[in-house]
Amino acid sequence: MATTTTTNSNEAAASLSDVTEVTIHPLVLLSATDHYHRVARGTRKRAVGVLLGSSSRGAVDATNSFAVPFEEDSKNSEVFYLDHNYLENMLAMFRKVHAKERVVGFYSTGPQIRSNDLRIFDLVKRFVPQGTITPPVFVIIDVRPGRESIPTTAYRVVEEVDSNVPAAGKKGDNGGGAAEVRKTFAHVPSLIGAMEAEEVGVEHLLRDINDPTVSTVANLVKAKLSGLSTLTEKLVEMKDYLTAVSNGSMKPNSEIIANMQAIVNLLPNLNVEELVRSMLVKNNDMHMVIYLSALIRCVIALHDLVLNKIAYNEEVGDGLGEVVVGKVKKVDKADAGEEKKEDDDAKAKK
């Protein structure tokens, strides 16, 4: 009975220590973007910082962050520098202002996992408060403007047993290799979340950034195009993974394959005649509406042009009447001059 209780408690502790999801708040994204533009913009460097927040039952909530001085050698991946004293001083000051926020992990602008990330994880783990069950997480924040999907990718550290390590056995021993435990990163679902005050601030920020010259239709079309490009990127990523698994260059993961199968099962069956006909009818109706809208807009534009021309002619005129009047006026002045001259000559003779 005691053994069963101990086993259940160990399983419960293991389930609580597993990271199930990571929520990134807008303040973290803004801070990481500002850090990158101040330190590594226009270079091949990356920015590294510490994530602050809270965790509960495997759900990590990153509400704040701060930058950390970091340098690494581009030629030798084993050489890097992280300022421990700066990190300790910043944590001490943050505890005075935000006592509830603690270290929940670290971020990097990546955009991919580097060889030094596991060593940085070991360093950041030292600053996690004692008694914390949930381990720190690693979040890659992609600050590139061309990215269409969510700019965050979260990972947790797991231990894997690699049995392909050759063992130094005796001569003639074909027993294979010895098992080796190594650490690696495993993907964790991440999402962007915000509190009510943060949502208000983000709305005001987006209102200032919004371009009034761009119409709503253009924004909708741009959103559709970005969604389709992201879908294409994900499908290509799935294809590359399946190709690598079939070639034997990557180990198969049952969870990933099960998710792919579920996605494929949710796709509609396009071989049904009724579905194909309904899609064609819907497509034709939408194209007809677009054609009629363009035709009506063209007719209205021509009508406005005709009205504008009529109004212009009424105000200014075509110019012919003024020329005729001018000539008449000139002739009248000449005749008046000749008559005046004749009168003067007649008076002089008298």
From TrEMBL:
Organism, as annotated: Skeletonema marinoi
Molecular function (Gene Ontology), one example: metallopeptidase activity
Listed name of the protein: 26S proteasome regulatory subunit RPN8
Residue intervals of the MPN domain: 22-161
The organism's place on the tree of life at top rank: Eukaryota
Cytoplasm among keywords: no
Lineage per the UniProt record: Eukaryota, Sar, Stramenopiles, Ochrophyta, Bacillariophyta
Biological processes per GO annotation: proteasome-mediated ubiquitin-dependent protein catabolic process; system development
TM spans (from-to): none
